[in-house]
Design brief:
The chain is mainly α. The chain has helices at about 15-25, 40-45, 50-60, 80-105, 105-125, 130-145, 150-160, 165-170, 175-190, 195-225, and strands spanning about 65-70, 70-75. Strands 1-2 form a two-stranded antiparallel sheet.
Length: about 230
Amino acid sequence: MTAEILSLPPAALHDQLTHRLRQMLVENQIPPGAKLNERALCEALHVSRTPLREAIKALAAEGLVALVPNRGAVALALTEEDIQHTFEVLAGLESQSGRLAAERINESELTEIQALHFEMLAAYTRRDLSHYYRLNAQIHQAINLAAKNPVLSATYQQVNARLQALRFRSNQDEAKWRAAMAEHSQIVEALAARDGQTLGRLLQQHLQHKCEVVVAQLRDTAPRASHV
C-alpha cells in the first residue's frame, strides 16, 4: 500500500478511522479483492488492532468489506452479474427518492443541494476527482434524505455501499465524467422545479449510464488481469 494515510487524533477515533478506511476502499487505495493487512494498517494509521477491527466490522456491515473464513477481511469484489443486479435495484431506489424529494423537499434542503452542486462543478473544473466524488455522493444522499422516508433511506444506504468504489472509478474517463456532470445539472434543475416525474427518470437514467460504464470497465480490465 503506497497511498499516504493520515494519522488520526484520539477524538472520535472510531468514526474517523471508519471514514478513512471507507475512503481508501472507495478510491481504490485498497483494490477489490485485496486483503486488509491489519498490521500494515495499524502502523500506517497509528492505531491498535482493537479500533481497527471495529472499523472493519462497520465497513463489513456496509457491504464494502467481506469477512472471509481463514483469510480475514477482504475488499469487496463484485462480479458483472452482481454489479448489474445491484445497479438495477439502486436505480429504482434513486428514482423513487427523486419523485418523493420533489414533493417533500424544503427550501433549505434545496439550497444546500444547489450549493453542493456548484462546489462539485468547481471540483470538476479543477479535475479534482476525489473531492468531486465526495460532493457527488453527498448530493445523492441529500436527495434521498429529502424524500423523508426512513425505510427508503435505510435500504438505499445498504445497497449504495456496495457500489461506491465502482461509482468513483466510473468518472475516471474524461468523456464519461463530462456526461455525468451534465446529467447532474439536469437533476438539480428538475429538483428545483419540483418536477418529480422528470427527476425520477433522470436519476434512473443516470444510474443506468453508470452501470454501463462500470461493466465496460470491468470487461476491459478482465483480460489483462488474467495474465497477471
